[in-house]
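ugh finaly. both done.
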Amino acid sequence: MSDVHSYVLGSVEFAAITDHYSGKKAKRTNIPYMQHIIEGLYALDALDASVDARLAFCLHPLAERDEDLPRFNPLYASNPTVVMNVMEYRNTVNRYLPAHAEDGTRRPHLSPLRDVNLMLIADKTQTRKDFELFQQVTNPANARLLDAYFKNWLRVLGVTEDRYRALTSEMMERALQDLAKVWPT
């Protein structure tokens, strides 16, 4: 484990999201919500993202939706750049939602901040992976729409299918390594 990864796991940001997601799982898949954060951090490691991008990624679910914003506490962040990245992520991601993929006339737009674009790569890669593994089967009615949504985001972010497969492979391999440490054979 890199020093940066260890630092992030010991951060106030990681503690805040761990507390927020404590014991919570997705209804459809029964996967702990923390898996999204952990695997997203693996992707950010592979992308050599800044520490601030990684810390902001930990906090992004706490401010993503409109109803979350009044409860978002900026003291969850260790510095103002992390708060800025969380708010810019929120701004960028909410301009292109799955419903926008349906009509085909709108496309995602990049952030002017590199850190936020790397957060988006990690988020959309991890979420697409889970969609392909679990929801495509359990939610076939939305499968075509969500497939287009994720592919549109990754295309705009410059992530090729080969790069997507490499990032998902990295996420899954690291997750298995971590599980092996917890449950050795």
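ok and the 2nd:
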Amino acid sequence: MTPSSPEPSTELEVDHGWKQINQGTDQFHEYCEYLFSSPRILGSSLLQSITDISDASTSTDFCIVNDAAIEGISKHKARWKSLHGRSPQMLHDIIWMLGEFAYLSLRRAKLVFHATGSIDASRWIGATIACNLAIDFCKHLPAWLLVYDIYSRIKLHTLYGVCLANIGRFFESTRHFNEAQALLSKFPGAGPADLAVIELRRAEAVLTECVYITPFLSSSDWSISSDGEPQNIQAFSELHGKGKEIRIALLDGLPGGTQCSMATVRQEVHRHSDARVIFIPTRISECIRKSSPHKHPSQDAWRENAQRHLRRLYISVLDEATALLDQAELHLSGHSQSSLWWNRLYILRLRIYGLLEPLHNRAGDCLIFRKRSAEQGIFESFRNAVRIARDDPFRQYRAIKYFFEAESALCQIAPPSPLSSTPEGAKTFSDILPAARTDAETKLEQLKDRLSTESQPHREALTSDATIKETSFLGEAIISLYDAHRRASSMERT
């Protein structure tokens, strides 16, 4: 901690507000150090180990640095257990703090994703390590803390699933969600709203897989080299680190084989262990492998066949997310009035409409159109999300951003016609949607003015442009969205 940092408090309290997660990196780390230095936690060494592993993920000497960081966290964990593992109070508090830190890190990583459109694995890895540590500490809780044990594991497995999905480990993510749901069935007093939370988190993870698939559907110039290396997937590279030198690899090796063995996967992982490599997730990689360039000598024919498999996977993933949101809405209705989860429901539904764009004329096959037309779904989701967001700028920004994406996708796809007829003279949702767009533009301008005013004192105290951007992810994102929308509107008018 810096000399000006406050003294560690004996009260355990974590601020999850948008201002806290929107801070610069140094300020955020100082706040986390303050939390873990509490005499009720004494976990500063654990936090440092988590930070070391997160930093190792961006190192050029990944294997050497990562092995040392993993060995370090194992030693610190064993030392903490030997000193404090027999105290139920300290076990209770460290598990709680690790869970809160994981949630805080997750919110910050999501803010960066919504603001920049880039999934930076180093920001998610810290949260996954915190969840892993907390689940391990749960094993040492006494039997009389069984209820707290189950409650903590449900929360930790759910957060773990979201974090793993964002670094491309979707099978492991599903396993943790299943574990959380199984534990929930044994938790005394659990209700439908608790199940809805897991369903919303699972839908969020499922939509992340769509984000991973999109670059392969939206681009028509990518290919696979003779040694199995994907090439020219610029959108996929940008998704995982703007401004970074990364390489992309298939997890299951050369795409000409008949099956993917664990030996092949192990060989590929070790072959790329000394480089900054992003592995394509398993199901996406399998679609590419099944297409087999050896059966289609022409790159265009092979890519078209691969995209056909990927499009089928994409639709099934979107349908899974749609079904999960419908189930969550059913379980929240009449059981919870939490603005957090209702807002999350409508934002995720808006994201589904926005993610339809790569499907073009195949979008009509999706389940999202089963209950309502595209115009009705977009309008109602946006209206409800904005109403629930109230004065929270982060929630407002997400609602506005994904409304614009959904409306843009609506112009590119061919949605099915509504089954019900509209009485003559009555306003349709197609008529109301432009009014919603005007409302979104007004709110965006108000939000830009508000964030500019609030961040002005910080900007005047800074000299580096890079530091300014790092200080306010949300402010920069709102300005970028405003400028992009103004340019798009100008092009439409011309």
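summary for the 2nd one i guess: The beta strands are 223-224, 230-231, 247-250, 277-280.
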